[in-house]
């Protein structure tokens, strides 16, 4: 279940209470008159079955609570309550299949921002991938896959395409378009320094056959990217985040970027171009599959304001 808190003007509280109490998927409704200071108003709290959340949030947005007050949602890990059990039983659908669109928008919107943290993680991941390449270490390559933060913007692009949220698409595309070149440039500088100081040489890289899969682009590259994109979006929309780890270590986005940087420093342009192609195939495949999965999910009950720009966008 999700815990919902709404701040609303006092004159609209009765309507908010009616919207909540009339839905069978809502329970534990509490009202605190005059408790809100900024914005001023009443505070209404309730626990909502996940599969009912979209409809409930839509009804509150129809009352302009999101504009004149605010609506927040929090995940409830444990609820010991017969009333909560009844609400989940009466709510239509299954919790695992429910998409909370506002939650998905907020999550992907946050993870798609181009900031110092995103650039740092991407650069570190590319550097790890480069170390894996020059040391012929698949384990280090896997570590780079896990560290890489690129799935957030890729998922955001998919969400933006399906919901026609072009502000989200632009933000996420900018993060990727700036992030990967910057991370690859940093990796190239580090690789040049390593080559110049004899930390590794061309022979070491060309003999690293255990990591050749990173740049060997082919039909299975696209197949794996499509499967990973589908699994990743299912994980995000069903709140089964543990599956995302499997997504991270199944695609070669960051490793391909790191290999391309190392190959460019060594003037191995054929490997460099193949690595870039591998990167492109994975990026496109993940977005395509994620968007397809999202388009096939049930979109009934979306809040009417899903089309408005993100804050600070």
Detailed description of the structure:
The chain has a 4-stranded antiparallel β-sheet with strand order 2-3-1-4. The chain contains 14 helices and 4 strands. The longest helix has 31 residues, at 166-196. The chain folds into 2 domains: 2-98, 2-Layer Sandwich (Alpha-Beta Plaits); 104-296. The two termini are 29 Å apart. 60% of the residues lie in helices and 11% in strands. It has helices spanning 13-21, 53-62, 65-68, 82-90, 101-111, 116-134, 138-147, 151-163, 166-196, 202-206, 219-237, 243-248, 253-265, 269-296, and strands at 2-8, 26-37, 40-48, 70-75. The protein has 313 residues and is an alpha+beta fold. A hairpin with a 2-residue loop joins strand 2 and strand 3 (40-48). Helix 8 crosses helix 14 and helix 13 runs antiparallel to helix 14. The protein is elongated, with a radius of gyration of 23 Å. The chain crosses the membrane at residues 114-135, 141-163, 175-193, 213-235, 242-267, 279-296. This is Putative hydrophobic protein (TIGR00271 family). Keywords: Membrane, Transmembrane, Transmembrane helix.
Specify the overall morphology. elongated
DSSP summary: helix tally: 14
What is the helix/strand order?
EHEEHHEHHHHHHHHHHH
Strand share of the residues? 5-15%
Whole-Å distance between the termini?
Answer: 29 Å
Largest sheet: 4 strands, antiparallel
Q: What is the total number of structural domains?
A: 2
């Amino acid at each position: 279940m999700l815990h919902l808190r709404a701040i609303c003007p006092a004159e609209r509280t009765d309507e908010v209470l009616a919207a909540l109490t009339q839905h069978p998927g809502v329970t534990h409704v509490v009202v605190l008159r005059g408790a809100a200071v900024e914005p001023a108003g009443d505070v209404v709290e309730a626990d909502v079955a996940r599969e009912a959340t979209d409809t409930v949030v839509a009804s509150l947005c129809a009352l302009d609570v999101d504009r004149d007050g605010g609506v927040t949602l929090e995940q409830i890990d444990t609820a010991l309550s017969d009333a909560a059990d009844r609400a989940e039983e009466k709510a239509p659908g299954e919790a695992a299949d429910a998409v909370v669109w506002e939650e998905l928008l907020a999550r992907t919107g946050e993870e798609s921002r181009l900031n110092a943290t995103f650039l740092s993680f991407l650069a570190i991941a590319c550097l790890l991938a480069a170390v894996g390449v020059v040391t012929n270490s698949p384990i280090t390559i896997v570590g780079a896959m896990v560290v890489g933060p690129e799935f957030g913007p890729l998922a955001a692009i998919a969400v933006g395409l399906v919901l026609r949220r072009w502000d989200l698409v632009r933000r996420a595309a900018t993060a990727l378009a700036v992030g990967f070149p910057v991370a690859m440039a940093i990796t190239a500088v580090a690789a040049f320094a390593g080559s110049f100081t004899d930390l590794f040489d061309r022979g070491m890289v060309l003999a690293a056959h255990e990591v050749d899969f990173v740049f060997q682009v082919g039909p299975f590259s696209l197949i794996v990217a499509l499967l990973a994109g589908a699994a990743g979006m299912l994980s995000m929309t069903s709140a089964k985040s543990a599956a995302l780890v499997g997504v991270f270590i199944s695609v070669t986005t960051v490793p391909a970027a790191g290999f391309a940087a190392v190959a460019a420093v060594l003037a191995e342009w054929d490997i460099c171009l193949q690595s870039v192609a591998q990167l492109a195939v994975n990026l496109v495949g993940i977005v395509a599959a994620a968007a397809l999965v999202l388009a096939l999910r049930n979109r009934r009950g979306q809040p009417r304001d899903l089309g408005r720009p993100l804050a600070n966008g």
